[in-house]
Amino acid sequence: MSSAYPHSILIVDDEPSNFEVIETLLAIDAAEETFSKQAQAYQLHYAASGAAALAALDLFQPDVILLDVMMPGMSGLEVCQRIKAMPQWQAVPIIMVTSLTSKADLARCFTAGADDFIGKPVTRLELTARVRSMLRIRQQYKALATFNASLEKTVQERTAQLQASLNRDALTQLPSRTFLLQQLDEILRAKCFSFAVVYLDCDQFKLVNSAFGHAVGNQLLLAIAERLQQLLHPSDILARLGEDEFCFLLRHVDCEADLEPFIRTVLQSFASSFMIGDCEIFMTACLGIALGNSAYQHPEEPLQDADTAMYKAKLRGKNCCQIFDCQMSVAMLARLTLETDLRRGLDNQEFVAYYQPVVDLKTETVCGFEALVRWRHPDRGMVSPDEFIPCMEETGLIVPVGIMVLHQACQQLLTWHQQGWKDLTISVNLSVRQFASPTLLIDIDRVLAETGVDPSSLKLEITESALLENADVAIDLMEQLRSRHIRISVDDFGTGYSSLSSLHRFPLNDLKIDRSFVSQMDENSRNFKIVSTIISLSDQLELTVVAEGIETRQQLDHLRQLGCTLGQGYLFYPPLSVRDIETHILTRSAYTG
Fold first, then answer.
1. Which class for 580: exposed (0-12), middle (13-18), buried (19 or more C-beta within 10 A)?
2. Could you read off the pLDDT of 240-299 as tens digits, one per residue?
3. CA torsion angle for 454, 412, 462, 514 (degrees, to 10)?
4. pLDDT tens digits, residue range 437-469?
5. pLDDT of amino acid 497
6. Residues linked to residue 95 through DSSP beta bridges, in sequence order
């Protein structure tokens, strides 16, 4: 391509007259820029169809593509999708030219991969502004790609040169884990325990690699290493242990107080940003510290303890530090044991559903149940949900266990219906992880098909936080559940800071008032007024209100006074096994089905 035309623009439109309009407008822009000594010359290419555009990409090598949306044959949206599916053309900006200006139409353009759009009729001001903007993006991408390619080549060459040296990290040229362990071994052999191991891990470093690429990530690591090296005393060592993990070996440290100034300095060193090429990146780090002591026999031990302390620091948040103590190892072992037991428990079907009755507050008769997961451990007996539910959420085990409980609950409800208790309903909780599961609808359909339960007797309880995380997605999913005649309830309402007025957006049937409001609901209290407002608005929205955590007669009287329909809590019944329910509740005298 001639150097007189540094920018190649491909215009795809089935109407040649539209090309002529764009050509004229860009020619005026180029002329004005030349007059101002800021030449912005363009070489324009024309394709009359999507197929012609795809065939001409290699020939024209466009820097920007102006693509008409409405074309016969292959539409602009399909052309855009095809171009963005080609790795060599993914980074070329595409501007959709369209007379369709509704939000839904523009959303379809961006979903197809478009980078920008221009409305018809095309104006010179908008056209030139958007073309220049996309050209700047293209230039920046080319510059970054060139920069990344250069860095990758440099890193590969240095890695090849330094592979023979086990004692040096290939990227930063800092001492390696091997060298650090050798030094620790020498210290322990000399019976010198006045040292400290400070394990440093950068917070969310993977985001840098995802956003900018591994080459930029490597440059950031070099910058971090350089900054940390400035904090060393002559007898200290800084090693790189892993991708974004560093470790200090500090000598002449007798107690925790000796470390405090150094720890403050390390954390403060991350306060200022890192400039990597044109990217300004802010980072934080967490520190785990192990102090030398005579109990250490092997060099791996203090390093492992510092790593454990660092993990504990990360649980507290970014930019934190933690000094190791023996209880951390105990806690870590307990957590690993718990996770192992949970996975085994899932395989062995140790999780069972207990059911807490839901009561009509006016008659105090049972009208349904909420299914709650319980763990029948082979050695420990019944394990408290407070102990294992958080671990299930973190590991994702809540998804298969939740479906298992749903299956048990639906099967049990069908049994009760067949025994004559046809008006009973069952409520099953969906956690945030379950609600976000891509297989949720498939799993629910499978359970309904396998059990044959009437879906109109099933209520799925969704936490308020799950609704707020992505309201549009939540609404779509809830509507699909409602189309199966499943009732939807928002659980723990009031804890997620959503406004009462936003309730009308969601296709709900029921609303559960969180127990924290019920437990402190004196007549003149703020909670009483909140509950009153929730019930009043729910009535207007035709939502059934269920109060959780009713434990006293006074709470029951207040809820009745406010017109609350249903409730559950230890005032009536705790969560019960199927046997206890059938023995004490599902009798003609205790249930009015």
1. middle
2. 998 899 999 999 888 888 899 999 999 999 999 999 988 889 999 999 999 998 888 999
3. 120
4. 999 999 999 999 999 999 999 999 998 777 777
5. 44
6. 66, 116
Contact 430, 447 (CB under 8 A): no
Where do we find the tokens 């999913």?
477
Q: In this structure, how many other beta carbons lie within 10 angstroms of the beta carbon of residue 319?
A: 16
Do the beta carbons of residue 419 and residue 459 sit within 8 Å?
A: no
How far apart CA 168 and CA 468 sit, in angstroms, is 49
Rg (CA), the chain: 32
Which residues on adjacent β-strands are paired with residue 458? 426
The string over 93-102, giving b where at least 16 C-beta atoms fall within 10 Å of a residue's C-beta and e elsewhere, is bbbbbbeeee
Residue 87 DSSP one-character state? G
**Assigned token pair, 424:** 């009973």
The DSSP result for 476-538, as a single string, is: HHHHHHHTTT-EEEEEEETSS---GGGGGGS--SEEEE-HHHHTT--TTSHHHHHHHHHHHHH
Q: Give 464's contacts (C-beta < 8 A, 6+ positions apart).
A: 490, 491, 492, 493, 494, 495, 496, 498
Q: Which amino acid is at 267?
A: L
Alpha carbon 559 to its chain's center: 38
Q: How far apart are CA 343 and CA 34, in angstroms?
A: 70
- Give all strands of the β-sheet with 285-291 in edge-to-edge order: 237-240, 245-251, 195-202, 285-291, 321-323
pLDDT band at 99 (very low <50, low <70, confident <90, very high): confident
DSSP bridge pairs for 551: none
Find the length of the chain: 593
Q: How far apart are CA 275 and CA 272, in angstroms?
A: 10
Residue 210: Cβ-neighbour burial (10 angstroms; 0-12, 13-18, 19+) = exposed
Residue of 26, 21, 214 whose CA lies nearest to 132:
26
